[in-house]
Design goal:
The protein is an alpha+beta fold. The protein has helices spanning about 5-25, 35-50, 75-90, 115-130, 145-155, 175-180, 190-204, and strands at about 75, 105-110, 140-145, 160-165. It is built from seven helices and four strands, in the order ααβαβαβαβαα. Strand 2, helix 4 (about 115-130) and strand 3 form a beta-alpha-beta unit.
């Protein structure tokens, strides 16, 4: 993949993630210790009392639901790997629901992921793709050094090393088309060789 395409992909990805960061920044209050939690509980208690009396103050304490795109993401190595493992163990469970939808593309940071991690991901991707048509196999995109800052800023979290984007994600059609047109499917030669006998048996 060319540097130009990689830059465009990163720009689009950040624009997709930004609504999550805005929601987190506006509606998530950083913890300030036990005293702050007690004060918050007292304040909520007063607000609830106002609501029961017909007041309006407590209604503003309920934040809106996070953007829908959040349900179609896996953020972090462990979450992404766990989702791939679940799909590999039960490929028949995947459907259009955000919780069980298959991952379309995994973005990893070049500075944070070693070769062993890439190999593990590639193996899981191939295993989870056994029942998928070739054009829907998950892609693995290695983002350039420095991309972590942009992704972390978009998500409003301290750091991020991996992001998985699921099929059916809202407002992601352009990104997925770009990735599928310019990023090849994952190649794991030893895995594909080991699967040839099974493929012949299935096709017989």
């Amino acid at each position: 993949m060319s540097a130009e395409h990689c830059s465009i992909i990163l720009d689009i990805l950040c624009s997709i993630l930004e609504p999550i960061g805005v929601h987190r920044k506006v509606y998530t209050t950083p913890s300030k210790g036990k005293r702050n939690k007690k004060q918050k509980r007292r304040a909520l208690g007063r607000d609830d009392k106002l609501v029961s009396l017909g007041g309006q103050k407590g209604q503003s304490a309920i934040p809106p639901a996070p953007p829908q795109i959040k349900n179609f993401l896996t953020i972090g190595f462990n979450t992404t790997v766990r989702h791939l493992e679940n799909l590999a163990q039960d490929p028949g469970s995947r459907n259009s629901d955000a919780e069980t939808a298959s991952i379309a593309v995994i973005f990893v940071l070049n500075s944070d992921q070693d070769l062993a991690s890439h190999a593990q991901l590639a193996h899981l991707i191939k295993t989870a793709s056994l029942t998928l048509p070739a054009n829907l196999e998950p892609r693995l995109v290695v983002l350039p050094k420095g991309a972590e800052v942009r992704l972390a800023t978009a998500l409003q979290i301290p750091r991020v090393g991996m992001v998985g984007l699921k099929n059916g994600a809202p407002n992601a059609a352009t990104l997925l088309e770009l990735v599928r047109n310019h990023v090849p499917t994952v190649m794991v030669p030893w895995f594909e060789e080991s699967m040839k006998p099974n493929m012949k048996r299935w096709m017989a």
